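Input record (one chain):
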Amino acid sequence: MIQTVIKRDGSKEPFDSAKMYRSIMSAAKESGLMDIQAKNIADQVSVAVLQVINKKEEITTEGLRKEVFKELDRVAPKAADAWKVYEHLRTTNR
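The corresponding structure, as predicted from the sequence alone:
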């Protein structure tokens, strides 16, 4: 079961499924979906991602993002586009 996220700098922090869920919700809302639609997408994507990553004890932030994006792109391509924009802005503003 997933326990730890390995950050880019090599540090580790406990995996927080609520943090992942909030990120997915934000992307879904940013894509223009109504709250209930965003919640449904976040629920669906979170469950699918957890099924994949719970086979491991650790995952890198990059690996986690990749899994979220892959599932989000499958379920809600507009939300995946919003996720890409967020990720781009977050990584270029460092």
